[in-house]
Amino acid sequence: MSEQFAHAMLREIYEQPDAIARTLARYVERDALREAVFGDTATIVEQHRDMIISASGSSRHAGLAAEIMLEDTASMAVDVEYASEYITRSSNTKRDPSVLVISQSGETADTLMALREAILRGHPTLAVTNVAGSSMAREATVSLPTCAGVEKAIPATKSFTTQLVVLRLLSLLAAEARTQISSPELKQQIALLNALPAAIAEQLDGWRDATRSLAEIYCDAKSLMYLGRGIHYAIAREGALKLKESSYIHAEGYPTGELKHGPNALVSDEVPLVVIATVDRGDVESVMRYEKTLALLADMKAQGARTIAVGNAGDRELGKVASHTLEVVEANEYLLPICEVIPLQMFAYFMAVKNGVDVDRPRNLVKSVVVE
C-alpha cells in the first residue's frame, strides 16, 4: 500500500471516479443508452409494472435508492425486501413483478436464495453485481454488472457507488421503455451522469481534509444518528452502516421526519446527528424537503445538539444551523446520493483510524456472506 493510502478502503474511495467512468462506458455511448447491453430489460419493465428489489447490507441501501429512482422516473411500483425475508414470504400473491437482486459478489447466500426462489415463482429476474461471472449474473434473466473492479476492503465503497450508477441507468431505460421520459430529457440526464466522475474527482481531497478534521472532533461519540429524506434516507442508512462496520461505533439511519417521534430522546453530546441536507434547486420537491430539514436543524441547534450537515457547497443558511458542514457540489436530485455518500465513507474511515480499528478487516465480518 502506498504512503498516500495507508489502507485499501481509502484507496478504493479514491478509485470511485474511475470506477464510475468505466461503468458509464459500458452502458452509455455519448448521450444515448447502449440498449443492447441491457438485454431484455426494456421488455421486462414494459410487461411488469411492479418490481421487487431483494438485497442485503449496503446493496439493500442501493435498492432503497433505486426504489425512489424507478418510482419517480419510470412510474413503476417498487418494494424493497431484505433478501433473508423474501424467501420466507408467501408466494400466494396476484402480483406479477419482476425481481431485481443486488449483490457486490453475486454470491451472497440469502440474496442468491431469493433469486432462485423468484425464478421458481416464474418471475423475470435482473441481477446487479460486481462480478460478471457470478452465480447471480449467470442465473438471472438479465445481468447488469457494475465495473468497480476488485474491492479488497470489507466495507463497500466503489462497489456501492457503481451500483447506484447502474440503478440510475436502469431507471432511465425503464422510463424510456414505458414512455415516461422525453428524448431531450433522457439526453440531459445522461449528460449529467457523464459529468459525474470529474465532479467527484475534484472534491475528493477537500472531503478528505474535512472528514479527517471532523473525526478528531467526533471520535468520542458513543453513537450517531444519520438522517435523510426521500432518496437520501438510503444514504443515511448507508452512512450509518459504514460507521458501524468500520469503526465499531454504534450508528443508526432514520428518515429525518421521524427524529421527533422517539429517537430525539437519545440526542446528546454523546449522540450527535449527521443530517443530509443537500438540495436540487431545480426540483420543487427537493426544495421542500430541504426547507423542512433546515427547520429541524434549527430546532436541534436550540436543543443544544451537535450536528454535521451534508449540504450544498456555499450554503450559508445551513452553516447557521449546523455545528459543522460537509460540502457537496450541487447536482441533480438522483445523482446527489452518489456524491454525498463518499464523504460519509471518508468520515467512517477516519473515525475508524482514530479509534485504532483495522478498517480493511473489521472484526466478525467477511467480504461476501456466502453462508446464511
What's the overall average pLDDT, rounded? Answer: 93
Helix content: 40-55%
Distance from N terminus to C terminus (CA atoms, Å) equals 32 Å
SS elements, strand count = 12
Question: How many H/I helices?
Answer: 14
What integer value in Å does the Rg equal? 20 Å
Briefly characterize the structure.
The protein is 49% helix and 15% strand.
Notes on the protein architecture:
The chain has 2 domains: 8-194, Glucose-6-phosphate isomerase like protein, domain 1 (Rossmann fold); 203-354, 3-Layer(aba) Sandwich (Rossmann fold), CATH 3.40.50. Helix content is 49%, strand content 15%. The protein has 372 residues and is α/β, with parallel strands linked by helices. It has helices spanning 8-14, 16-27, 41-47, 57-74, 83-86, 109-120, 135-139, 158-177, 183-194, 196-218, 232-247, 284-303, 316-321, 336-354; strands at 28-29, 32-33, 50-55, 77-82, 98-103, 125-129, 142-143, 223-228, 250-255, 273-277, 307-312, 324-328.
Considering the chains and any ligands shown, give keywords for the structure.
2 domains, Rossmann fold, alpha/beta, 5-stranded parallel beta sheet, 14 helices, 15% strand, 372 residues
